[in-house]
Every structure is written in C-alpha cells, then in structure tokens.
Amino acid sequence: MQKVTLNNGVEMPILGYGVYQIDPKECERCVLDAISVGYRHIDTAQSYHNEEAVGNAIEKSGIPRSELFITTKIWISNAGYEKAKASIFESLKKLKTDYIDLLLIHQPFNDYYGAYRAMTEAYKDGKVRAIGVSNFYPDRLIDLCHFQEVTPAVNQIETHPFHQQKLAQEIMKKYGVQHESWAPFAEGRKGIFTNSILKSIGEKYGKSIAQVILRFLIQNDVVVIPKTTHKERMIENFNVFDFVLSDEDMNAITALDEGKSLFFSHYDPQAVEYLISLAKQK
Question: pLDDT of 4-62, one tens digit each?
C-alpha cells in the first residue's frame, strides 16, 4: 500500500475506507470486509455513531493494531478543552484501542481552539499519533497553523473531479498539511458515474470510473477514503495501484474542475446555521 508521510513523520496509507452514513448495525461487517480486502486505514467520526462498530471490527479482525491506521473526528458539540478531552477518552473506549492514529476537528465551529488544545495534549501523551482538521477553508487553516504549537498534519475536505480544491491544496503544501479527500465520488452527484470523459479514460485502462477518480486523486497526492457497503466495490476501489494515468488524461480530468462545492459552503450563513443546528441536536 502506498503511503504518505505526515509532517511529524507518521506514515498514513494514501487509500483508506470511510464509514460515513453506514448504519452501526452494518458497520462492523463492512469494516471486517474492508480489512479482509486489504484496507488498513479506516476513517470514522464521533458524529457517525459507529465508532463502537469500528472498534469491534478492529478487535475481531486478527490484524495487529500496529498495522492499522484509525482516524476519528471530534464533533462540534464536543468542542472546547474539557468536552474535547472527555470525548477523546470516549472515542478511545469505543474504538477499543490505546491510541488513535489520526484525530481531526470535524468542523471549524464552536470552541475549536479549545478542542485543539485537548488534542495537542493527547498527542503529547501518546494517545494520538497525529492531529489535524476537517472542513477547514484556507483562511481558518492558516490562522490555526500560525497560532498553535502543533501544526495540523491533515486537512480532510470535499475533493473530487468537480471540486479539486486547487487553492486549498496550494495552501496545505505551503504549511506542510496533508490534503485528504472526503466524497471522492461526489456521492454520485452531477452524473459522475456516467461522465463521458471519465468513462472514456477508464476504457483506455480497462478500469471503472471509480478507479479512474481514485487514481487521479492519488496521483495528485491526495489521500482518499471511498465508502461502500459492498465488498466487490471495496475490492474494485482497492485495485488502483496497477496503472498510472497519462499526463493527457490527468489534464482532461483537471479540466472538469468547477471550483465550487456540490454540498455546502462555510461562507453561506444558512449552511453554517444548519450544521450548528445538527450539533445542538446531538
């Protein structure tokens, strides 16, 4: 498995398995399937309500903990030093592990500075191997990088062929932050799985559109965590290291970038109010 080296020297698999919106009742089976396929990087979050299922799968997999890379995220409602600190211990308990490989702030709302202090403390105590953020736009990422003792190792943001986050990636590279994608398939929006350009490129290599997308992101040094509940899709998504897209094909996919989100914008007051309302419900 190809890996990236984070700014603190920790190695992270460039391809992982995400469990967003997977029902806790089904999640354990899915993670066990993913591990059996060969995935060693599993991405969950407090707000997904399936950390326990991930923990059960880790325990039952028979794979040494040292061979796995586990990510979770602190939700908005757990922001602030004290709440974040308590939530970290709760996540460790649910995941049935002595340490978390990567811990992220899920959204840049509420007292995320306090949460980051708790994360930094857990990092120094060896409870977390790397800390970072998710959904931080360049302005907030720059602010955090300048005023925290530990520079975020990762920023996980919406990234797919229609929203490639070129400016955000430039900023991340400048500050030594690893770019990670959520929704690499845009959750199927804008007909991504029938796109004629992606389809024709896939036909050249005998690969699916999904494999072309993952390969494109990987060649752009972006960590990807595709989600599926079907083992055959897990296998398909995993088999993306036996071909390389040409410069011509990379350029063709680059041209698909529309430069805007297909989901939400933190610069949209209504979107922010909606996200915060979700946090207050939990």
Answer: 999 999 999 999 999 999 999 999 999 999 999 999 999 999 999 999 999 999 999 99
Token representation of residue 188 = 């199927």
Distance CA 143, CA 202 (A): 40
**Prediction pTM value:** 0.97
Mapped onto helix, strand or coil, the DSSP state of residue 98 is: coil
Strands (E), 25-136: 41-43, 69-74, 102-105, 131-134
Q: Check: CB of residue 46 under 8 Å from CB of residue 91.
A: yes
Query: Residue 149 has which token pair?
Result: 């003792």
Helix axes 81-95, 112-124, angle to 10 degrees: 50
Amino acid letter, residue 207: K
Sign of CA dihedral 123, 126, 130, 136: negative
* Domain coordinates in residue numbering, the chain: 3-281
Task: Tell me the Ramachandran region of residue 183: left when phi exceeds 0, alpha when psi lies from -120 to 50, beta otherwise.
Answer: left
Helix (H) or strand (E) holding 18: strand 17-18
The single residue listed with the structure tokens 């083992």 is: 231
What does R_g of the chain's alpha carbons equal in angstroms?
A: 18
3-281 in CATH: which number? 3.20.20.100
DSSP one-letter string for 199-268: HHHHHHHT--HHHHHHHHHHHTT-EE----S-HHHHHHHH--SS----HHHHHHHHTT--SS-SS--TT-
DSSP string for 107-176: SS-SSHHHHHHHHHHHHHTTSBS-EEEES--HHHHHHHHHH-SS--SEEEEE-BTTB--HHHHHHHHHHT
pLDDT digits (tens, 9 = 90+) for 68-78: 999 999 999 99
Judge whether 146 is annotated as a binding position.
Answer: no
| Catalytic residue ranges | 48
Q: Distance (Å, rounded) from C-alpha 183 to C-alpha 40?
A: 19
Provide the token pair at 84.
């974040």
